[in-house]
Amino acid sequence: LSWTSGDQQIPAPPEFKLGGIRGYLNIIGRIPPIVLPYWDKLLLRLLITQANAFISVFGVIAIERAIDDGIRVGDSHAFFVWAGISAFLGLVALAHLWIYGTMVMYVIMRVELALKRLVFGRVMQMPLHFHQSRPVGATLFRVNRDTLLSGDLVGNALPEIAEKFFSIATTIGLVLALRSFILLLVLIHFVAY
Question: Which of 10-19, 67-76, 91-100, 164-173 shows the lowest mean pLDDT across its residues?
Answer without folding.
Answer: 10-19
